[in-house]
Design brief:
67% of the residues lie in helices and 0% in strands. The chain has 79 residues and is mostly helical.
Amino acid sequence: MGALSPTHLIIILIVALLILGPGKLPETGAALGKAMRELRRSMADEPAAASPDAAGSPSASSAVADATTVSSEPSVQER
């Protein structure tokens, strides 16, 4: 199993054209390109966030987890 040949890519494009139609295909391609750019950007930013300097500070994911944790106990104001 090697890489995709040009014949494979043409077949994929024809199937996508049949499924999506000529009107939706450019919109779908643009959305896919935008998603890929966002993925690359986030992957490039990830090593910078995992640097040893940031090890002492709480991570963003733990801060989000703390902010979204729902407590079943009533708060002080509710008592």
